[in-house]
Amino acid sequence: xxxxxxxxxxxxxxxxxxxxxxxxxxxxxxxxxxxxxxxxxxxxxxxxxxxxxxxxxxxxxxxxxxxxxxxxxxxxxxxxxxxxxxxxxxxxxxxxxxxxxxxxxxxxxxxxxxxxxxxxxxxxxxxxxxxxxxxxxxxxxxxxxxxxxxxxxxxxxxxxxxxxxxxxxxxxxxxxxxxxxxxxxxxxxxxxxxxxxxxxxxxxxxxxxxxxxxxxxxxxxxxxxxxxxxxxxxxxxxxxxxxxxxxxxxxxxxxxxxxxxxxxxxxxxxxxxxxxxxxxxxxxxxxxxxxxxxxxxxxxxxxxxxxxxxxxxxxxxxxxxxxxxxxxxxxxxxxxxxxxxxxxxxxxxxxxxxxxxxxxxxxxxxxxxxxxxxxxxxxxxxxxxxxxxxxxxxxxxxxxxxxxxxxxxxxxxxxxxxxxxxxxxxxxxxxxxxxxxxxxxx
Amino acid sequence: xxxxxxxxxxxxxxxxxxxxxxxxxxxxxxxxxxxxxxxxxxxxxxxxxxxxxxxxxxxxxxxxxxxxxxxxxxxxxxxxxxxxxxxxxxxxxxxxxxxxxxxxxxxxxxxxxxxxxxxxxxxxxxxxxxxxxxxxxxxxxxxxxxxxxxxxxxxxxxxxxxxxxxxxxxxxxxxxxxxxxxxxxxxxxxxxxxxxxxxxxxxxxxxxxxxxxxxxxxxxxxxxxxxxxxxxxxxxxxxxxxxxxxxxxxxxxxxxxxxxxxxxxxxxxxxxxxxxxxxxxxx
Lengths: 442, 283
Description:
The complex is a heterodimer of chains A (about 450) and B (about 280).
Chain A: E1 25-27, E2 33-37, E3 47-48, E4 55-56, E5 61-64, E6 73-74, E7 79-88, E8 94-102, H1 123-132, H2 145-148, E9 159-164, H3 173-180, H4 182-196, E10 200-206, H5 210-218, E11 225-231, H6 240-248, E12 263-267, H7 268-280, E13 286-292, E14 300-305, H8 310-316, E15 324-329, E16 336-337, E17 351-356, H9 373-377, H10 384-392, H11 396-401, H12 412-416, H13 423-441
Parallel strand pairs in A: 1-14, 9-10, 9-12, 10-11, 13-17
Antiparallel strand pairs in A: 2-8, 3-5, 4-7, 5-6, 7-8, 13-14, 15-16, 15-17
Chain B: H1 3-30, H2 37-45, H3 59-67, H4 81-91, E1 101-105, H5 126-130, H6 148-152, E2 158-160, E3 166-168, H7 178-182, E4 188-192, E5 197-199, H8 207-211, H9 223-227, E6 233-236, E7 239-242, E8 263-265, H10 278-281
Antiparallel strand pairs in B: 1-4, 2-3, 5-8, 6-7
Helix pairs in contact in B: 2-3
């Protein structure tokens, strides 16, 4: 059954991955300052435990997890806590952040082994160690990994699905990780299998990454039941529910998590990160990010300390071109535009995309002509045209009845709309509006 | 067809009709719910705006409450004094006294004084802009200026001025609170018109950091705390906070030394409708 099913609908945007797909991962030098927001994950913000002026070493805990669905924040560089104040957050708001003035002459050697060695740990201890290491999903949503490793007891997990689709155009972080650190991906799978008590794993990789598929197959340990499955190149193949549909032919019911069909999905970069944390003993303090787009001079895949300001990363990549116009965190489909170069790269930042003026023209929005292209594009079978009209009228309750909650904001509808209606943006605003309406009614 | 058959049809249908008519007539008698006829009359006198500013679900519910003497006619913020008196006269009750309340904006950062660090070209509503880097405004707490509140207002009481701030016209504002829910940045508050003292800022930043973003932001210098009556104003999270339970102690003196004019003494309208704010920003 495996791999016999695709998912229906979806779109084929230009991939544009050639800018960085063959560029090896490089380490960026430490910037002069890192900014670490307490809110870098799904769940409650972390609680700050350091004070201004305090000296911290790389890997030291700055803020503790507040509850189970929360994740701590660690110092990503040695230095002094310069300030704790509000700072621009990638989501467009401001968030409390710890700013560290990085010690220029520090050897940046972390304290030895802050994360315990993994062998000999019981599954529950692994889950705790993963939380304490601040490991979250690195694919964008930054869902705390340890929560995925402790699924509800009544929903047994039988398969680990590693998401190597990376269907967003331009981004190549997972691609490079699978090519350069395939052993880490396998080691991460081993840890997840141990924590979850699962025997089988599948790595789904889009067919446009043949080198990654080959490397993963070459390095597969003999004792591990892992298969690498090439997937059709189609957006949004990497969406959790689409991937499960493509690989297993199972449909995750509306409003349910993948564990309801016995699957845990984790993206390839996050799996490798899990392995790295246990290998090095250092909590999640750096991530790999693709700095790309026609608006940046030397596109690259970089290892950056978490909290590096986007301006510093772009400067390291040769700076902006003359006609650079828009900076996006994430890919062009689902990414969020940034208003300032001071925004820090956080744990959930998959890429920094710089678009040129010609790529982001001001396009007039025309009325909906009811062509139905968005219906053919929507991978979860919604009616974006109807939802769009309701959103423009602020009729959020009716949108809820039309399954707004199933929309994952993949923007396939916005992509195909001939009238340039920014449907995904409207839906995002509607989701927030609905939450506000419910809060004010309660 | 014979005459007998025709007559039989008429007789049967007539008989059936008579039975049902009797049933309906009896049901009407037996199941009748008496309703005060004054409710309909009062409801006809109300503005039918259904704005709910009175605290009831709509004008009909308000009429029921009036007739039941659970509220007073003046609780309606939409009717003018004459209309309120008419309702009071009809019911033979006192009109009551209502405090005139209006919506006030907790931001004065128009495009002339607030730093815009990026250009926003997405869908032109505040709700949509709030999802994308706060519309590119330097201050992430401030007014987005795209007029979701003006769209939400059923009374045309909100007009966007030249610097992109919503101007609430006190005479038209009924304090219904639609703008409060419409604003994605939670910048509106409903307060009595005779509460003159207001801090027009919600930025949690303090000092030079916030001054770099907006010329009329509260920089948390604390001068107003010293200049006001003790206990009226205190500093909290980089903002001056007024304790409105002690508002009778308020005095325009509290605003006199504010370096950014973030705290203001309002008489009537909050922002000028026509002129740009540039002149008044640094007093």
